[in-house]
Amino acid sequence: MSRIGFKPVSIPSGVSFEIKDGVATVKGAKGEVSVRIPSDVSVEAKDGVVHVAPIIKEDGGKQSFENHGTTTALLLNAVKGVAEGFKKELEVFGTGYRCQMKGQAVSMFLGYSHTIEVNPVGKYTKISCPDETHILVEGCDKQEVGQTAALIYDSHRPDVYGNKGVHFKGQHLIKKVGKRAATTATAGAKK
Asked: 92-101 burial by CB neighbour count: b if 16+ within 10 A, else e?
């Protein structure tokens, strides 16, 4: 049984909630997010609060309870996204590695013979570069913000030997010892 599923979704002021043809649309100051409602889940909006309940069928309704929790979590994220927004910060490390804005896309120099450009995923997602080594991805849809940040991250994942590349701010990186350092350490131990 999902505990998240029974959590009521409160709608703050300035946010509108509408259900039509099995799709819940949440609109706010930051943008608009649509959430598909499965057929085995019922959604009711009353007095600024949305309640989600599973529709139990003859087969026991295990899938309806799973969809119940997922739908509630998606609606909570949609309301939070249009009211406050989501953001992910990335850092670029390496000699000569830098990033800059080119229209709405970010253009990165990451040690390759060519520049890499990443466009934002989704209508309400935007990318910005406060300086040459930081990238900020913001938007109202949590999935689109995460997808855009993942595309930027995948353009050059961090190197385990030198930590060069793109990584999320605050990400813990385990740095490996290079071959030269490992051989010198073992040679010094043999003497």
From this structure: bbbeebebee
Q: Using CA atoms, how far apart are residues 42 and 115, in angstroms rounded to an integer?
A: 48
For the domain covering 86-168, report its CATH number: 3.90.930.12
**Identity of residue 37:** I
Query: Between β-strands 98-102 and 105-109, what pairing exists: parallel, antiparallel or unpaired?
Result: antiparallel
pLDDT in tens, 45-86: 888 899 988 888 776 667 888 888 899 999 999 999 999 999
Q: In the chain, which residues fall in CATH 3.90.930.12?
A: 9-83, 86-168
Answer whether residue 120 shows pLDDT above 60.
yes
CATH superfamily of 9-83: Ribosomal protein L6 (3.90.930.12)
pLDDT in tens, 143-166: 999 999 999 999 999 988 888 899
